[in-house]
Amino acid sequence: MKTLEEVQDIQEESAKLYVEQVFEKVKQRNPNEQEFHQAVKEVLESLIPVLTKNPTYMEQAVVERIVEPERMIVFRVPWVDDQGKAHVNRGFRVQFNSAIGPYKGGLRFHPSVNGSIIKFLGFEQIFKNSLTGQPIGGGKGGADFDPKGKSDNEIMRFCQSFMKELSKHIGPHTDVPAGDIGVGAKEIGYMFGEYKKIRGTFEAGVLTGKAIGYGGSLGRTEATGYGTVYFVDEMLKANGLSFADANVVVSGSGNVSIYAMEKAIEFGAKVVACSDSSGYIYDENGIDLQTIKQLKEVDNKRIHEYVAIHPNATFVEDHTKIWSVACDIALPCATQNELDKTAAEQLVANQVKAVGEGANMPSTLEAIDVFHENNVLFAPAKAANAGGVAVSSLEMAQNSARLSWTFEEVDAKLQAIMKDIYHNSVKASEEYGVPGNLVVGSNIAGFVKVADAMIAQGVI
Asked: In CATH, what number does 221-384 get?
């Protein structure tokens, strides 16, 4: 008769084999989609403890179902530039999982957008949205359109064309897109106007990230950056650390980066470096955030202009070298896979204490291993980056109730959500035998809620 330990070993091996088989099928069905493969691999490997303990998830084929989108929509987006020349871009929307609510996830306009990136983002969104505690499923979308260098009229015409097709697949109770890289309040406004014209009705809850004047939420602009810092702050405090007097490096200088910097500075940190695609700036006296806001949010200029205003600062053309700057806390807030193994090793050599992911999947799997092996506190994106979609869900709630909350009310709710995500992730990591591993903890905490809902609803 086998001992309990032997039975558990057999169950664990069975879970590992199951995960390997599911992942191999994902690769076969989705060839050459490296970003999607990476996202799936990270989650599946994290789920081995929960599958070992709860084989029902394997018996009900929950994992096979959760890695397969419920729907993937690909469409052409024709538009005309200011010179009258016609262009055609490709649009995407992946409706990945609706077990706990309508699909929810941003739209990204960037030349790099393809099926793999949209699927990786949509897959991550399932668990991120689940972690918020809000009733929202996972989705994502976008187009390989580059808004940089385009006039407002060109962007408007593109957004209107994009919405002509997208409008067939979204709605306040079906799928609620928001913004992402390349899609801000301006783009959301153009799309909302076109949707309203097509439908002939004012459905405020169909898009989030709207301007305040027609159903947007106070605090939404700041939410992702603030949320990242709220999560990291909770992680630091639990380990006897804080932002106070810490040197912080933040990659990027867009919306997430700016408001992560703002909140970190408010918490007493000194942000010494930030970047854009042209390079990074280092200011040993601390980045002047108002200058960054002026350059990026008003003047739409490149980051190197900062040194003309602050000559004591330094500009380095290679933005990937930002992780060579010594810091106590690193906040990658730019884009996926920006922080690789070499960068992680450099951060560790410079005695970094914590890393918090403000962007979607900014660290490679090898980089995450380096942080764990060297006991660096690590806040994974699907947990730390969840503030944006959390406040988007709060915007949906305000739209449904036809009311608006103050900035302070929204911010208080955001802080509570981020604290809950941290503690639920810690609890799951401890329950499944990997205390302190927030990658595993957040994946399991997000998965269990969705998986249980899928089982309760039958094989659908």
From this structure: 3.40.50.720
